[in-house]
What we know:
- The protein is built from 14 helices and 16 strands.
- The chain has helices at residues 22-27, 50-55, 71-74, 81-89, 98-105, 111-120, 157-167, 192-197, 204-219, 234-247, 260-264, 270-287, 340-352, 372-387; strands at residues 29-33, 125-131, 171-176, 223-226, 252-253, 316-321, 355-361, 404-405, 408-415, 418-424, 430-438, 444-448, 452-456, 463-469, 476-482, 485-486.
- It has a 7-stranded parallel β-sheet with strand order 5-4-3-2-1-7-6.
- Helix 6 packs across helix 7 (157-167).
- The longest helix is centred in the middle third of the chain and has 18 residues, at 270-287.
- GO terms for molecular function: alpha-L-fucosidase activity.
Amino acid sequence: MGPRPDSGNRPLADRGGPTVPAWWRDAKLGIFIHWTPASVPGWAPTEHEIGPLLASDRHNPLAEIPYTEWYENSLRFPNSSVSRHHAEVYPNRPYADFAADFRAGLDTWDPQDWARRFRAAGARYLVLVAKHHDGFCLWPTAVPNPHRANWCTERDVVGELGEAARGEGLRFGVYYSGGLDWTFNDHPIGSPSDLFAAVPDGSYAAYADAHVRELIDRFRPDVLWGDIAWPGNRKALTNLVAHYRAVVPDGVVNDRFMPHSVLSGALKNRAAAVLINGGARRMAQRDRGIVPPKPPIFDTRSPEYSAIDRVSHTAWESVRGIDRSFGFNRNSDPAHFLTKDQLSWSFCDVVSKGGNLLLNVGPRGADGRIPDPQLTRLHWLAELLDTDADGIVGSRPWVTPGDRGGGREVRYWADRGNVTVAIHHPGPTGSLELWDLAATAATRVRALGRGEAHSTATATTGPLTIHWQGGGDGPVALFSVSGAVAARSGLHPERAVW
């Protein structure tokens, strides 16, 4: 499927590139997969989500990061929670040893099972971490690591999962950590300024470029997902992205390929580090998560453990784990996982503002199995999307994302000339005035999923009232409204932000 014209979705800094393809805008749900040697110990502190941690005044907050995939970096802080745990459970064992356990676990890994489960959950695309910050590659690369021998899998995890995903009708993308590789630069990262200062220099830029070109040419990924930064300059990045667009014309590039040369000059002195750390703290307080700076070339934005508060004309995806980590964390308690209410409503909120949800799954490192608490959350998404996938998949933002009405939160999005209304905590029976919608003689309301619904209005210019019954006690109820107008602007639903 090729790109279709989609005004308003081409980043201003990348006007020469393609528009964001329809398949990505239609998808609404993607699955991120973090599965690395760090999944073997699978442990991180759980006291804070990443946003509140970075917003705090804690010294070296990243030493206590809740992400298990950062296990190797956390070990470099002798007093960190991970170091204390490691000393107790794995005394004197270096991180690199976990690769052998990880490789052994591949014997029981079933990529077809993963793909079937992700498709059943309602996902339309996957993004697999092909190489995270530890530098370990999940394919038998022809570009060997010069610092750690055999630092990759013999089994082609990337290729096999890509084939299984596409066999289920899913798009398949790859994540590559261009900004960090701890086999090239193992400087401890405790703060945001450390993060960017730790981007390797020297031969690493050519190494990373060769890796990504290999991934592009070998696997033709539908999504090219970078992280942290890009070690080369803007010219090198432009050439790389041009190669990707030539090979995958309807592919998507995320917003984390910031050329390192743009950042490196600002990180040479202590005063700059203080400014960067203070700025990062204020942004985390404002955004309640991580919002990457805009690079010169990108297609989609990727707020992390965060979302946006308005309809966006730029394509975006909300990126987060099912608990407080991306990688598998055996330290997570039930309270650290998204509840059914949180997951269902946050998904509706993202869709109403024109975004996708890229929800992470973290398989176990020892056997490649997806833990039951994560499978439960995938089942919850399947229930929501099974209500009426056609009312969600392929939708676009309406003229407003929604507000509170009658004490309940409401979200709207446009679906082929109709308006889908999502009501939070509806109860099995009830009614609600929607002040954003006005009825006409042609207005009809249909309950999506179980139950029945109808509408009433005292006048064609008055608020639309939805009545429902028999809808169960789920956290969200969805209704399709046809023939209504936007009460505040007079616009018809088909005038949505397409």
